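ok trying again, last paste got cut off:
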Amino acid sequence: MEFKPYHKSFEHLHIGCEKPRAYFIPYHSEQAALSGDRDRSEHFINLCGDWDFKFYQTFEDVPADLASARTDMKLKVPKCWQTELGKGFDVPLYSNLFYPFPLDPPHVPQDNPTGHYRRTVKLDKKPQKKYYINFEGVSSCFYLFINGSFAAYSQVSHCTSEIDITEYAIDGENTIDVLVVKWCDGSYLEDQDMFRLSGIFREVYILERDENHIADIYIKYSLSADLDSAALSADIAADGDISVNYKLIAPNGEIISDGGSLPERIADPVLWSSESPELYTLLVSCGSEVIPFKIGFKRVEIRGNIAYFNNKPIKLYGINRHDSDPDTGYYATVEHMKRDLEIIKQGNCNTVRTSHYPNDPRFLDLCSEYGIMVVDEADIETHGMGFEYRDTWDWMRWSKLSTDDEWEPAYVDRAERLFERDKNASCVIMWSLGNESGCGKNHRAMRNYIKSRDPEAIVHYENAHLEFKAVPIGENYSDISDVESRMYASLEYTEEYCKNKNAKKPFFFCEFCCSMSTGDIHAHCDMFRNYPQLFGGCFWELTDHGVDIGGGRFRYGGDFGDFPNNSICCVDGVVFPDRRLRPGYYDMKKAYQPFEAEYSDGSVKIFNRRYFESLGDLEIEWSVEVNGGVVLSGKIDDTDIPARSARSYKLFDDAPLSDCCYLNLFFKLKKDCKWASAGYELGYEQFDLSCEREHLPLAGGKLEFIDGSRFVEITAGDIKYVFDKPYGRISSASVGGKELLSAPTSVEIWMAHGYNQLSAAEDRKSAAMQAVSQQTYDAVIEPEVDALTIRCHVAIGGPAVVPVISGELIYRFYGDGSATLGFKGKLRELLREMNMRLPRFGFRFTLNEGFERMDYFGKGPVEAYPDRHRSQRYGRFTPTVDENFVPYIRPIENGAHYGSRYGAVESREYGMIFAPVGKESFLFNASHYTPHMLESTAHNDELVPDKRTYVYLDYQFDVRGGRGYYETVELERKWDFEPIEFTVAFKPYKGEIDPFEFADTVR
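nice, full thing came through this time. structure:
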């Protein structure tokens, strides 16, 4: 069993493989074909399941006589072998930027892990039949042996390889041996931002074909200018002499034609769109085979600098999606794909970019059914070519492979495999030449191939823009892409482009608003809607990439000793690896919702943002809430508002008079659909109907205090405080003798920084902000009638540096048992000059064990921050402290609620309530963790919760950002921390308290 090491040279990309063809499965009957389930086809032999397996640390250890080589374990196929943790294989390696091997193309490491797969399959081999084995995804390359004979070699991890094994197969038991090599020359073109995994990760099957059969078919159609007729044709490549019958079935089941040719004209075709994914079925019969295709009639075109879909200037509200499963790696089952599409559709997305490679072909079939437009991307990224050394970046080197003649066949091969496999997929609207590979003539060759097959195709490539086309290669490659594509461009840059009369192409964000934080997504979508030449964009990205080490414990880059790695950059999705929703999902969903509303005098005007369909599939449930309770409600059923139109509805004559009154509109599905059940809330709108806030007088009461040498004891009824004068803080707060505090009050300026704030965190650590303490210079006691004020001049700073803040803490105690804590101060001058802002500013109260119930009126129920709150509504919410916690894989700041009018934390009998003074709202949070506990813990599952409850009352946070990795929003949009003037009222209590009355009381 001898074979050449083809994986070490790009001279041979595929040996013994068939030409790339359209994805299809032949069935034995029309009924089976209409099921769409390929496992029901008698021509389909599924080879998935347990395979015998042997792992070799290096390809050089593979025995020459592979047929007699022993395997020593079972391995599931499909699956990536690195996800079988603890079995002696090489480990998962996550890299965003760097090649995991020496940068020496086309050479790969001598130590090259290799997996030997083996299984037997019993074939009832028939005369006048041919047998083709299909590998839909293998990383990075494989050698195929049938019954001891070398049959094929192939690479391109995410594309199908098909091999005719008829001459090797026998009637009866057949032995299939597959050698999968971790790295090959093609790995230089697969430097994508993902875990680097290996193995047979998509399905493997054998197709039994008639001797004379359809080898390939390209279904083409054209629509008239006014879209009222369609012409349909099929280009067939045959293996032998064949006779073909076509049956065309309309979306409603009506048979349009059935015969030896396709209809020359289809009148009034039902059009496909993401809003109404109507599909025709074409059954192509040839011999014993029936091959089904789904056809969605659509037109995507560019007129000037505006993109049109079915004659409408639509917007793409998209998301980037990797194939990623925490248990199987790259393998995604059909149920996994459906779940992803449900999440995507429920999040109001209409587009997916298959970053950064072709997805499973069945995913595209599902996108066509669910109504998702697809930017279909070639399996190319050479990101690491730009690094000669890890900390250096060279633009010319980035384009090295893209400009190298020797690599052109490999580039074109990947374009061919992308296009030919997916050319009949109704959902595809753009063909992408890959990602982050510099730019060069090899990309032009890719474009030329696609255009030769479909002159009307829209080709996308992000790096084909001005900054990249001139500097590294000196040639103008702007013609490569039909759209002007950017990732993480600033809003200012985008607006400048839109106003530039020389801008000739639609502008598309292939990536924007990295979901490490999502602070900018609403600003982006507002801009999309303001400029017709903005085609929209794709949010980065759908899912966190994490490897499950057991029990839902996820790990990221570096956790397996992998080098090089990019650490936590892979946990940047809007859902967790197990598809639980992250807070960023709600930001995306709200920004993308296909409707908006205006309110005036008891009426609402609903605008339909859709381009083709009415809002008739939705009902609008409305309610008026006063102090968090519903006082009026109703439902709007007649929602048949045409696309791009508006309609007004009268809800009530007079709104209730209240200083805390909100109108909520909830848009819900009337009926079940493919991706959600009836009643699913697609979005909401909220309007503040509050009248001027009524302030209540402070209730009287007797206040007593004892000023001791160190402590001041303050008593009002059954409420008692103890103030620690040297430290300038409250050390005790009790009611009825029950102590509520387990630690003194404190100022809090540190936070567990978000993933794209890490560089800011390092700057702040240089000012010792993470280790501050309070220096109290004095404590001045000012008695009043039924009140007591204590003023402390303080400085807040860390070791080895001067204090970062100085000012005055002001405590005031009242006869009703309530108190206030305030601060007036300023930031150190040098920090202002360095434009270094505080992470946050607020107060922390540490409550004893047992305080688990939160009660707040503010933005919720999901966390909300100053630059990331528009997805959340004002309301009264009562989660537990644990329910309020967001389990980010790497713990970061979480759980705060912007715009809170009050916040309370309660045990079974006792509670403490807080409210802002002289300010409409604050940020309220309660947690079992401090910022340092979060920051010092690498993984959420390693957190050990404190039994105590930490209550955080924040004046403000610095922005979470969202433009891109490690990048925050523009400086002028950041919070200016100066001057700081912030006061909160608080009160311990037993039993119940009216929180709105407390918040409205003047102090």
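cool. The CA atoms of residues 322 and 355 lie 6 Å apart. The chain is about 10% helix and 35% strand.
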